[in-house]
């Protein structure tokens, strides 16, 4: 055997598994999206009927996309801002830094099931800690039905995302802060620049590539949101109150597995994939354009 063939021989197990468990399912799902199939009977080729139905005859799909975007708008800016401020604060302290970093990062590695149980307990209408706290301070007179009203339900899901992902953003920003030359801060201090002015003139511009990366990953991850609302409203109707927290992936899951419409579910997934690509490209161009102006 030729020496040049040895690398390909060692790579072959990974390539075979990658083709079998990644590439083939994608191609096969794309093929299924053009069929009508319940998972057991024979597949019936329907052409673009599934995609036409997704974009023109399925109000639940567009409602799920709207819910997803709305929850993203309610959570992503706060995750970015809180993560940055927390990173700057921790970067400038020496005592107990590792402890606070660990505490803030723990929510990110906490299992989604535990997070769902915690927030269900906190925001329960009758015995929730949040309602008891608000009533004891006199801010409200009676408990708010956090998990029973559409807008409140979206707020709770957004709070879950903020609580879970702020620590991750903090860790990424801390890495970025460590790459900024300290000479810049020393020079700004010698020039009489205030801490706030230094933050806006030096820290934020130099962290712009990291911010762009986080925004893009937040958009991609947000459009794939599933665990948070599904686990929080696992005992209620699909999508929560009035389907207000029905996300695109939850709609795909319900369509595909709850009603056994695998062909249509595959079309929903690839339609969502197209939407993710569009939003990612738009966000990338917008953020890249803003950075080029600086």
TrEMBL record:
Signal peptide: none annotated. Residues 65-283 form the ABC transmembrane type-1 domain. CDD domains: TM_PBP2. Keywords: Cell membrane, Membrane, Transmembrane, Transmembrane helix, Transport. It is found in: Cell membrane. One of its GO terms (cellular component) is plasma membrane. The chain crosses the membrane at residues 7-31, 69-93, 105-123, 199-223, 262-284. The keyword Protease does not apply. PROSITE patterns: ABC_TM1 (PS50928). It comes from the Bacteria. It is a multi-pass membrane protein. GO terms for biological process: transmembrane transport. Belongs to the binding-protein-dependent transport system permease family. This is Sugar ABC transporter permease. It comes from Metabacillus litoralis.
């Amino acid at each position: 055997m030729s020496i040049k063939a040895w690398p390909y021989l060692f790579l072959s197990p990974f390539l075979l598994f990658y083709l079998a468990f990644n590439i083939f399912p994608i191609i096969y799902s794309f093929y299924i999206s053009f069929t009508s199939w319940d998972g057991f009977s024979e597949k019936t080729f329907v052409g673009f009927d599934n995609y036409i139905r997704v974009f023109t005859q399925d109000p639940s799909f567009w409602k799920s996309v709207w819910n997803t975007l709305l929850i993203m708008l309610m959570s992503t800016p706060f995750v970015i801002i809180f993560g940055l401020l927390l990173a700057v604060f921790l970067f400038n302290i020496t005592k107990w830094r590792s402890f606070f970093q660990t505490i803030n990062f723990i929510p990110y590695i906490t299992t989604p099931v535990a997070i769902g149980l915690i927030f269900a307990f906190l925001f329960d209408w009758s015995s929730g800690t949040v309602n008891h706290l608000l009533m004891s301070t006199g801010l409200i007179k009676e408990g708010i039905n956090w998990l029973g009203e559409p807008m409140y339900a979206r707020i709770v899901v957004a709070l879950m995302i903020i609580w879970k992902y702020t620590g991750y953003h903090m860790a990424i920003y801390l890495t970025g802060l460590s790459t900024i030359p300290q000479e810049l801060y020393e020079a700004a201090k010698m020039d009489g620049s205030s801490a706030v002015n230094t933050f806006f003139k030096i820290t934020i511009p130099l962290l712009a590539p990291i911010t762009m990366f986080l925004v893009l990953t937040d958009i991609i991850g947000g459009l794939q949101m599933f665990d948070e609302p599904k686990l929080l409203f696992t005992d209620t109707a699909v999508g929560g109150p009035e389907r207000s927290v029905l996300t695109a992936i939850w709609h795909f899951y319900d369509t595909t597995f709850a009603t056994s419409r695998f062909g249509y579910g595959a079309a929903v997934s690839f339609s969502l994939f197209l939407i993710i690509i569009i939003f990612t490209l738009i966000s990338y161009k917008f953020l890249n354009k803003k950075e080029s102006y600086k």
